[in-house]
Amino acid sequence: MRLGQLLTLFLCSAFVHVIQAQESQVLIENVKLLDYTTQTLTPPKHVLINGNTIQTISTSPIAAQGKNIVRIDAKGKTLIPGLIDVHVHLVFGALTMPQMMTNELSEEFLINTVGLSAQQMLMRGFTSVRDVGGPIFPLKAAIDKGKILGPRIWPSGAVVSQTAGHGDFRTPEEKSRRFFGVVSRAERYGATFIADGRDEVLTAVRENLRFGASQIKLMAGGGTSSAYDPVDVTQYTLDEMKAAVEAAEDWGTYVTVHAYTPRAIRRAIEAGVKCIEHGQLLDEETLQLIAKKNIWLSLQNLVEDTPDMDPQRRIKRKPVIEGQEKVWPMAKKYGVKLAWGTDFLFEPDLNKLQNTFILRLQKWFTNVEIIKMITQDNGELLQLSGLRSPYPGKLGIVEEGALADLILVDGDPLKNLKLLADPEKNFLLIMKDGQIHKNSLQKR
């Protein structure tokens, strides 16, 4: 049975308890907001959420009426936007590589992994994520319908890769379908499209768009977690890349590419991509070009070696890990549009560290710069999907008219960013789409 079918079975049997299911309005009183201009907190304000939208923000008390109003006295705590991670793989991040390769991807197994992982991510305060590769569509549909708990998902669907590219997940005994006519296991499960030549790339991109992709993920260079391609190689010809960009732009959205090296990234820029994932081996000249072209750089501060990491992967990752110490400050220096994500793969234990990885940015950015990046800036990148965005509305900011994805923090994160690293203790309220999923304060 295919992974998508198993996920569907799981979704039908799942149940989510949402604290606030029927209330149409929430009034949060005596709450402080972030002021990016002064880099301080505002005086206490009152925030009225109507449905899934922030309706009113006022320094004066708000006279909201109705039997379904939830009133919350924030007692001077800090209200921030929901956190956003723009580089996740919800399925791949919830499973180990041996689990991905097993033939026993049962319904029960998925219930205890993928669904639970999505729920835990939301309860860490991540109300929106961009899933940049994997069989995500059934899980996203179930979250949107309220069948299970999880963040908003901007899905890419199956990654698009050339033969012997970063998305070629075939085992050694799996032959090319072009010559032998057998579709690989990873393709059957919706993890990847192995597409060569303009026509196949067009078909792969359009298939993802057909299923609801909000952006397209193309493998433009070598990777550290794939078996066949060295990190330094460039993948896809210019014509193939242009085909992907043209197909995406015809649907009003964009292509983001996996790439580390200047050569691969320059080719992608020439093809018209709007976002680069990774880029840890970038040089100053290419970073300046990225800034000039107003292209997003979706960067990570990747984890160093872990005990269970394959020795070959450890070797391949060495220049990338070394490069990330240089690329963050250089990108900031040249005014590159930066976004942040985690990119955890095949090591589920890393997921619980998602919030602590925010603190790694303190090497190069102030607290206010970091909070803005992981909320407002990441929110702007999500909206690059245009009409293909699955959730119309403004995210990453607390203002009238914005979507009500909110976190109430016990303290001032502008002064103490570590508050964001312990969501269980410090996040008193977690709201997504106007629905309360955690409330540690008493209603009055």
Automatic annotation (TrEMBL):
The lineage of its organism: Bacteria, Pseudomonadati, Bacteroidota, Sphingobacteriia, Sphingobacteriales. Residues 1-21 form the signal peptide. GO terms for molecular function: hydrolase activity, acting on carbon-nitrogen (but not peptide) bonds. It comes from the Bacteria. Keywords: Hydrolase, Signal. Residues 78-434 form the Amidohydrolase-related domain. The keyword Magnesium does not apply. SUPFAM superfamilies: Composite domain of metallo-dependent hydrolases, Metallo-dependent hydrolases. This is Amidohydrolase family protein. Coiled coil: none annotated.
